[in-house]
Amino acid sequence: MANIQPALYEAFGNIALLPWTSLSFSLAVFAVLSLSRKILYCVDMKWIYIANVVVFMAGAAVAGAAPNLPVVIVGRIVMGVGGAVVYQRYVAMYP
Questions:
Q1: Is 37 helix (H, G, I), strand (E, B) or coil?
Q2: CA-to-CA distance for 52 and 86, rounded, in angstroms?
Q3: Closest C-alpha among 77, 72, 75, 81 to residue 18
Q4: Residue 59 burial (C-beta neighbours within 10 Å; 0-12, 13-18, 19+)
Q5: CA distance 67 to 24
Q6: pLDDT tens digits, residue range 47-66?
Q7: Quick check: 5 and 14 in contact, CB under 8 A?
């Protein structure tokens, strides 16, 4: 994320929100992490994984097509929610 921050600043010009672009993904992952582990143990892993990859891709589409920096942050939050389950699947496979 650090290597694209200058381009984000040039495109959107709001330096006050720039740290939130990287922080929003991490906060969303950690907010959903424990819930995602419980979901993976209760429901079929294959379908939850596919659904969360779709959620992650939707967040990437929102962040990629964003007209301003707050929409990029919202897209990164959606990516974090989808990424938490993907991360938990990786941890479950390789403890």
A1: helix
A2: 7
A3: 72
A4: buried
A5: 18
A6: 888 898 999 999 999 999 99
A7: no
Contact 82, 54 (CB under 8 A): yes
User: Cα–Cα distance between 62 and 79 in angstroms, integer?
Assistant: 9
pLDDT tens-digit map of 8-54:
777 777 778 888 888 999 999 999 988 888 887 888 888 888 898 99
Instruction: Find tokens 């897209």 and name the residue.
Output: 75
Provide CB contacts within 8 A for 33, sequence distance 6+.
84, 87, 88
Cα separations in angstroms, 63 against 9, 54, 89: 14, 14, 24
| C-alpha dist (Å) from residue 56 to 12, 35, 42 | 23, 16, 21
Secondary structure (DSSP) of 57-84? HHHHHHHHT-SSHHHHHHHHHHHHHHHH
